[in-house]
Write a structure and sequence with these properties.
This protein is α+β, with helices and mostly antiparallel strands. Among the domains are: 67 residues, no CATH class; 138 residues, Dipeptide-binding Protein, domain 1; 206 residues, Dipeptide-binding Protein, domain 3, CATH 3.10.105.10. Helix content is 27%, strand content 19%. Strand 8 and strand 9 form a beta hairpin. Helix 13 packs antiparallel against helix 15 and helix 19 packs antiparallel against helix 20. The chain is globular, with a radius of gyration of 25 Å.
């Protein structure tokens, strides 16, 4: 008999717990023990080793990894523990140099700024624990069969949308039907949704219903999956809904641009949208019928804060909280008396991507075309990776809040990330050797392609902070030093929405782009299919590989419930991606959450259960510097 999904996952988490305990250290450091990119051995320890060759090494203090050293500077929970005011108002800032797009529904949005707007007024069906696994703390509870393929969800009765209508399982079913509809143009029809039984037949017009979604009654939904995978309980279930009383009679092709998404969105969250100034700000008011209880705040104003103004907005009390903070400003503002900076290791990496093809709308998948790609030669891509110093990027442009990345699996996924994996260290001699051997000869100051044709590449990046331009210039200069001429797309950097439009978030890839610099918040699921699967529109490099697909599938197989097996699979996938190099991992990061000292009930500690509706303020006005 097969073990149940929960028993297998519990066994997996036991292994993780034991592994973390074996690493030692205080509990505050448990999240940080699996990244050791560049250990710092103190001078004092080196001197002790030199003078006392017979010392017992076990007595020596273990050097901190770069990640641990960074995290040791910060707290994870707000120091203010006072009771919040009943009529408090919070000012929340989104740090971005672009207007938020205003796609205010979880089933359609693609940009992080829109997600921040949505998170205050809507939420999904399932809760999570500190290890990113779905638990029984959400709107829906669940159980599943022995094989782990059939889930039965019970949603709480009486949960209301902001317009007073009650949530039913029809809304959960509708979300799946809309995303799987052939007229849906959003980014969500990926491997997660495709694992629902019958959903591809529905997508292809071969069935009128999704066979894997069975309504038992208004509050009970049976969901059947094709495969029981280790990722099912870690992000492998689509948890967002669409209110059927609003979207049920609407054409799918019209939904994303509708007033219900753009102007008058409703949700299930603790606050209701009151007013929207498109791209600039949103005001919210308390939703008294919120299912968890009465929200702490009476109202919230969310506004866009240009990155250059982030520190000043905190200093002056213009905002109480920011969704993030530019690392370039941290040294100047880290000692503000009215603000404290909380931090946690981020499920994130920045990267440099290579355009290896485009998007095939008819087939709904990537179309890799190495022959016609200007960066189709693997040797050229590898040389470009060796030409710059990731440590310099982290230290110089992110003020030592980022550090050089060695993999496309980030250290936030502490069970699977291996700090000993080899990435691309700075080695311009190796870069030149690769180019020379591949026939990229110099013609004047720059190299040509092996056939003698001009080699000029185009680089695209976002204008996201005051360090964006200097970092782009550093990278371009690094490539010039190995003879590769690179120019900025249109001679400049691009605002957030324009950048993602041109790299292809809607499948319209700009043919001028050869290299692009982006970043991923990888979320709770280590499975990379949503970013590198051939059917993932977020696969912006347009890379495809049978070997990669096979390894990704192995990482989701029943055998992958064996953690050692799954770790081996992702280690093989890492090696493949570092060899083929469709993208270069650039930096890992801690996420900074700055808060005014009047804010209470905030924590970024993943092991502490907390909810957005509990956040409050203890003073009528923000503290100022």
């Amino acid at each position: 008999m097969r073990k149940s999904l929960v028993r297998l996952l519990l066994a997996a988490m036991l292994v993780l717990t034991l592994a973390l305990a074996a690493c030692g250290g205080d509990s505050d450091d448990d999240n940080n023990n699996n990244n050791n990119n560049e250990p710092n051995t103190s001078e004092e320890n080196n001197n002790n080793n030199d003078n006392n060759d017979n010392n017992n090494n076990d007595e020596e203090e273990e050097a901190l990894s770069k990640e641990e050293e960074i995290m040791s500077r910060f707290e994870q929970t707000a120091s203010n523990t006072d009771e919040p005011l009943e009529d408090g108002h919070l000012n929340f800032g989104i740090v971005t140099n672009s207007p938020f797009a205003g796609v205010l529904n979880a089933n359609f949005y693609s940009g992080a700024p829109d997600a921040e707007v949505i998170n205050w007024f809507d939420e999904g069906m399932l809760g999570r624990d500190g290890d990113f696994l779905y638990d029984q703390t959400g709107i829906a509870t669940f159980e599943h069969d022995e094989e782990g393929k059939v889930f039965t969800f019970e949603i709480e009765k009486g949960v209301k949308y902001h317009d007073g209508e009650e949530l039913t399982v029809d809304d959960w079913i509708l979300a799946h039907e809309v995303i799987a509809h052939p007229d849906y143009e959003g980014p969500r029809f990926d491997a997660t949704l495709r694992n629902v039984e019958g959903i591809e037949e529905y997508h292809n017009g071969e069935a009128e219903e999704i066979s894997g979604l069975k309504k038992i009654d208004d509050y009970t939904l049976e969901m059947t999956f094709k495969e029981a995978t280790p990722s099912l309980l870690a992000g492998g279930i689509w948890t967002s809904v669409l209110p059927s009383h609003i979207f049920g009679d609407m054409e799918v092709a019209e939904m994303e641009e509708s007033d219900a998404v753009r102007e008058n969105p409703i949700g299930l969250g603790p606050y209701m949208v009151d007013t929207i100034v498109p791209g600039e700000s949103v005001t919210y008011k308390r939703f008294d019928d919120y299912w968890r209880g009465t929200p702490a705040l009476e109202s919230i104003t969310l506004k866009v804060i240009p990155s250059a103004n982030a520190g000043k907005a905190l200093e002056s009390g213009e905002v109480d909280m920011l969704d993030s903070f530019p690392a370039s400003q941290f040294p100047e503002y880290q000692d503000l008396e009215n603000v404290e900076f909380l931090a946690n290791v981020d499920n994130y990496y920045s990267y440099l991507g290579f355009k290896l093809g485009d998007w095939d709308h008819d087939e709904g998948q990537v179309n890799m075309d190495l022959e016609n790609s200007r960066v189709g030669d693997k040797a050229l891509r590898q040389a470009i990776a060796y030409a710059f110093d990731g440590d310099v990027v982290g230290e110089k442009f992110f003020n030592d809040i980022h550090w050089a990345a060695n993999s496309l699996i980030d250290p936030g996924h502490r069970l699977y990330h291996d700090p000993s994996w080899e990435g691309y260290d700075y080695d311009p001699d190796k870069a030149n050797e690769l180019l020379d051997e591949a026939g990229y000869e110099y013609d004047g100051d720059f190299r040509t392609y092996p056939d003698g044709s001009e080699l000029v590449l185009t680089y695209a990046a976002m204008d996201s902070s005051d360090m964006s331009e200097p970092m782009a210039n550093y990278l371009i200069q690094s490539w010039e030093e190995i003879g590769i001429k690179v120019e900025k797309l249109d001679g400049r950097l691009h605002e957030f929405n324009d950048f993602y439009d041109r790299v292809g978030e809607k499948g319209e890839d700009d043919p001028e782009i050869d290299i692009f610099q982006g970043a991923w918040s990888t979320g709770t699921n280590v499975d990379p299919s949503g970013l590198f699967g051939k059917e993932a529109i977020f696969n912006f490099s347009r890379f495809e590989s049978d070997e990669s697909d096979e390894l990704i599938a192995k990482g989701l197989s029943e055998e992958a419930f064996d953690l050692d097996y799954r770790k081996e699979v992702y280690a093989e996938w890492h090696e493949l991606m570092m060899e083929e190099l469709p993208v270069i991992p650039l930096t890992f990061s801690v996420a900074l959450t700055p808060i005014n000292k009047r804010v209470t009930n905030v924590t970024v500690d993943p092991d502490v259960k907390s909810y957005r509706y509990e956040i409050g303020v203890t003073e009528e006005e923000p503290f100022t510097e």
